[in-house]
Amino acid sequence: MTLRRTPWLVVVAAMLVALFGALALRGTAVAQGDVPTAAIPCENGMAGPYLCEGVDFLSFLSTAEVGGVEAGEKAANLWGWTDPDTDKKYVALGTTHRTAFIDVTDPVNPVYLGNLPTPTTPSLKYRDMKSYGNYLYIVSDENSQAGLQVFDMTRLRDVTSPPVTFTQDAFWDGLGNGHNLFINEESGFAYIARMTSPTLCNGAMLMVSLANPLAPEYSGCYEDGGFASDMYCVNYTGPDPDHQGQEICILASDNDILVANVSNKNNPQTLATLTYPDIMRAHLLWLTEDQRYGVSSDMNDEMMMGLNTRLFTWDFTDLDDPQLTGIYEGPSTASDHNVWIKGDRAYVGNFRAGLRIFDLAELPSGTLTEAAYFDMIPEDDNTGHMGGAWAAYVFFDDGLLAVSDKEAGLYLLEEQPSSPTAVTLDALALQQGGPNVAWLALVGMGTLLAVAAMRRLRD
Questions:
Q1: 198: cis peptide before it, omega within 30°?
Q2: Domain match, 142 and 18 both
Q3: Minimal CB count within 10 Å: which of 33, 50, 72, 412?
Q4: Residues 373-384 pLDDT 10s
């Protein structure tokens, strides 16, 4: 009897080893959401627990660490500002209840300075913000906000005992809610999209003069296309001779992308209507710095159509007839949100696939080449709008990248100066770090021991 009990004990022990290894392997994947407390360079496809290529991890602040202490409070859009007098760098991070201000001059050790509360009863709605000179303008999806907040960011210089609660410097009640905001700093106009309560401008685009930064003034409506998601506006200096010197806005909406001449705010004109296969909700189109090409995103096509991440490339040589030149298909089904272009790079908030960075060298032929990325949710790249890279501010002059994660908070990253021109994403567990390999070995060893012990029983 004793001789036959021993193998059974071995079987049980071996199975426990295998089970422990499997649970630990699963725990390792979960633990990859644990945030490092020090800067970590991206090496061999990893920056601590994160998948990456060409992007280093600098620091992280949770939503709670920037004043987001209300139940269910989440991060939203963000923007950056460099003080022209001190060269200090700041991030304004929106949440569902407030706008937080963070000094990121030392991005490895960011300092939360304080927050500007929503002007009315907080609720779980998102906000967007953009700068004009030294002023920050803020809108919210919250119906009861009823307006546009204005904050003088030079006041951030005077914070000596953070955090503090700020007050707004001005408030314009010319709208209810607004989904997104864009400011053309060259023209001095703000553009607000998707006003639904009450519905203004058919939900498309409200135009506001910032000639007096502390007293915004209604300037007109652009109503074509219905509910818009976001817009990009420029004083046009691109290759089309027919529109030189005009102010051009490109609106992305549920059904199409519209190109409009908004120089005359009393009579804006649609120049072109763009579409593409399986359009679900175009969210933003951004032009290259020479205004010749563009890249756009669609935040719902992956979720509604079961597609992989898609980005769309455009030739804007003729503003009256822009041409779709290519459709980039990513390696996963993660939803994409917004796209921003700086120099020869396009940056995409790709939700659960993180921040993706594309080389634009072959954009004239309709080709996007992924050059770098940082994936803050390495466990999966699932579709949907929960978690991962929501928004990014990529326009600091030193490679600093600020990224908001809706479910987590603020990531501060740095793009390496010599990112490779092409990368291949491989999220297999075996490539997510040494601990995974060890736990897989433990699982295998336990399984082999169990099989050997059972064979001995049979013998």
A1: yes
A2: no
A3: 72
A4: 999 988 877 776
Tokens of 12: 């049980």
Give DSSP secondary structure letters for 221-288: EE-TTSSEEEEEEEE--SS-GGGTT-EEEEEEESS-EEEEE-SSTTS-EEEEEE--TT-S-EEEEEE-
Structural domain count of the chain = 2
Residue 141 in contact with residue 129, Cβ under 8 Å?
Answer: no
The two tokens of residue 259 are: 């190109």
**Domain range enclosing 458:** 1-32+434-459
SS3 state at 434: helix
Instruction: Tell me how far apart the alpha carbons of residues 151 and 101 are, in angstroms, rounded to a whole number.
Output: 11
Model confidence pLDDT, tens digit, residues 29-44: 333 347 899 999 999 9
Tell me the range of 81-95, 119-133, 135-149, 192-206 where mean pLDDT is highest: 81-95
Whether 15 and 74 map to the same domain: the answer is no
Cα 134 to Cα 137, 157, 214, 235: the distances in Å are: 10, 12, 11, 20
Tokens 């060893």 belong to residue: 445
Looking at the DSSP bridge assignments, the partners of residue 342 are: 345
DSSP reduced 3-state for 216:
coil
With b for 16 or more beta-carbon neighbours within 10 A and e for fewer, the 44-80 pattern comes to ebbbbbbbbbbbbbbbbbebebbbbebeebbbbbbbb
Tokens found for residue 253: 């909406």
